[in-house]
Amino acid sequence: MASVVVTSQPNKGLRHEIKAGKHNLVADAGTDIGGNDEGPDPHALMLSALGACTSMTLQLFAQKRSWDLRKVVVTLTEEQIVDPENESRKIPKIVRTVEVEGELTPEQLDTLRSIADKCPIHKLLTGSKEISTSLNALVQK
Length: 141
What we know:
The chain has 2 domains: 1-39, no CATH class; 41-128, K homology (KH) domain (GMP Synthetase, Chain A, domain 3), CATH 3.30.300. It has 3 helices and 5 strands; from the N terminus they run E-E-E-H-E-E-H-H. It has helices spanning 42-64, 106-116, 120-126; strands spanning 4-8, 16-20, 23-27, 71-83, 86-101. The two termini are 32 Å apart. 12% of the residues are buried.
């Protein structure tokens, strides 16, 4: 499974370096909350993961069936909406819009729409999960 290491950057505000396998990324926060805006914030990274996974899932699905799916564009936004179970609080809502290019039948488009919800990141975000946290003190040098 995936393994990622995120390390804060002393004296660089909220900037963090991310090591994901052999890839290096940067996350930061906007200047409005004390970051330097040198990279996407955690919410944008999470939305990016969902968008990339959605597109890849559709491409792989269509390739296996030799469908003419030429291009996928996934646009995601996160907004706050009133909780239908408790009107005194708000909950996050992710809006995902998928645009596809290719010679696809209405049936193929319907199938792709349902396959979008089968991407592993969608399942991770919506399904049962457990997050286990441990905290260890680093030895100061």
